[in-house]
Design goal:
Chain A: Pfam families: Glycos_transf_2 (PF00535). The complex is a heterodimer. Chain A has 8 helices and 7 strands, in the order βαβαβαβαβαβααβα. By secondary structure, chain A is of the alpha/beta class. Chain A has a 7-stranded mixed beta sheet, sandwiched between helices. Among the domains of chain B are: about 1-50; about 65-115. Classes of the chains: A alpha/beta, B mainly alpha. The interface of A and B includes residues 38, 63 and 66 of A.
Chain lengths: ~240, ~140
């Protein structure tokens, strides 16, 4: 686990995840008993927050739904105000394997942002068709922008160190795909070092995969827009507001 | 143009102006937003009272049909207003987002402080609610 000099906080953004959040928390507790966790309930209208409280973990309850980006920014603020020096984002749907967290954190000694990639070799996560092309194009362009090979730019499994947290605290895009694609552009502009390591992804415990069929075309368009808007930002906004 | 269409035009301009002023008086329209409507209302009033001014301005600007000048100006002003509103919505959304985040963080802090105050075994120790080393499980 991360050394005590660099306490790590696991931030779990959750929007109406009452079906899976309990199991995810149990699993994290089992594998990472010494790691602090906060769940950011993103305007959930179901029992997500009360399940987290009953499990004895801390929950930050957003009164409105802000999207994953808004939830993560809240998590970053929480981490900085409580003295943590790094954050690992873990999804509430059970896709991310908590046993990979220490590997992400260890890698933070080499980089400011570490992305857990589904496609970099470990595991057997596959996508097809337009979605594959969309992700391929995003990976190619973001690899150029970030000066590092990236294969999974829309992964929500990420670790960030203090430098990255300071850049993102006031400046994390809340728009769709903003928290992944646009955030990477901001990171590159702020001269943060981005690295990717392979992780295994699993089936979701609950809920549907967010994209299929025609939706992937829409996803491609929106991803391109997120990329475009990221590149359009004036440089100074990447240094906080 | 009959006397009735002439008077109707003036009446419409006056209704616009009176409505805007009333809304301002009752605090339903802030001055910075009202200014465009006031300017527009006054311009319409001048043109309806002295229709010749529109023809004069159209000749001055080289617009063949005077009514086209008025439509062009109207579209321009409305487009600028719409842009201003979009921009203000964006800034409001941003402010709302920041407030939402702050409220959520404060609520969590309050919960932590309250639960620390409620549990008797902790009252002796200092209530460090924000320390990173504090274990996050109460059980």
């Amino acid at each position: 686990m991360g050394s005590s000099l660099q306490p790590t906080l696991i931030v779990i953004p959750a929007f109406n995840e009452e079906e899976s959040i309990g199991a995810v928390l149990d699993e994290v507790r089992r594998h990472l008993p010494d790691t602090d966790i906060v769940v950011v309930s993103d305007g959930s209208s179901d029992g997500t927050a009360s399940i987290v409280r009953q499990s004895g973990f801390r929950v930050v309850e957003l009164p409105l739904n802000l999207g994953v980006g808004g939830a993560m920014r809240t998590g970053f603020k929480f981490a900085l105000r409580n003295g943590y020096r790094s954050v690992v984002q873990l999804d509430a749907d059970g896709q991310h394997d908590p046993t990979m967290v220490p590997r992400l954190v260890t890698e933070l000694s080499q980089a400011d942002i570490v992305i857990g990639s589904r496609f970099a070799g470990s595991g057997d996560y596959k996508v097809r068709g337009p979605r594959k092309w969309a992700m391929g194009f995003l990976s190619w362009s973001l690899s150029k922008i970030c000066h590092t090979p990236l294969t999974d730019t829309t992964s929500g499994f990420k670790a960030l160190n203090l430098r990255a947290l300071n850049v993102f605290e006031n400046n994390y895009p809340a728009e769709y795909l903003g928290d992944t694609v646009e955030a990477l552009v901001i990171a590159a502009r702020a001269k943060l070092v981005v690295r990717e390591i392979p992780v295994t992804m699993r089936k979701r415990l609950a809920g549907q995969p967010s994209h299929n069929g025609l939706r992937s075309m829409i996803q491609l368009a929106r991803a391109l827009m997120a990329l475009f808007f990221g590149l359009m930002r004036p440089i100074d906004t990447t240094r906080g507001m | 143009m009959t006397i009735w269409t002439y008077l109707t035009g003036i009446l419409v301009a006056l209704v616009i102006l009176v409505t805007v002023v009333q809304m301002m008086r009752h605090g339903r329209l802030r001055e910075r937003h009202a200014i465009w409507w006031l300017v527009g209302g006054v311009v319409i009033l001048i043109i309806t009272i002295f229709p010749a001014t529109l023809g004069f301005m159209a000749r001055l600007l080289g617009v063949a049909v005077p009514i086209n000048l008025s439509l062009f100006l109207a579209v321009g002003v409305l487009a600028l207003l719409a842009l201003q509103h979009s921009s203000e919505i964006t800034s409001h959304e941003k402010k709302l987002r920041v407030l939402t985040e702050e409220v959520a963080l404060l609520k969590q802090r309050l919960e932590t402080i309250e639960s620390a105050a409620d549990s008797p075994e902790r009252t002796g120790s200092s209530v460090r609610t924000t320390g990173a080393k504090k274990p996050n499980r109460r059980t």
